[in-house]
Amino acid sequence: MSASNSPTTCPTSTVSPAIPSGGVSNYSVSFQVQVWGNVGNGSEQVQNIIPSPMGIPYCTWANHQYDAYGVAGRYPIYVLPLAAGSSFQGWSNIYVDSTQSRDYTLGDFFALWGQTLNNQTMFGKTVPPASSYRQFNDTWIWSLCVGYGIGPFVPINSNWSGLILAKAPFILLTYNTNITGCG
Question: What is the model's pTM?
Answer without folding.
Answer: 0.83
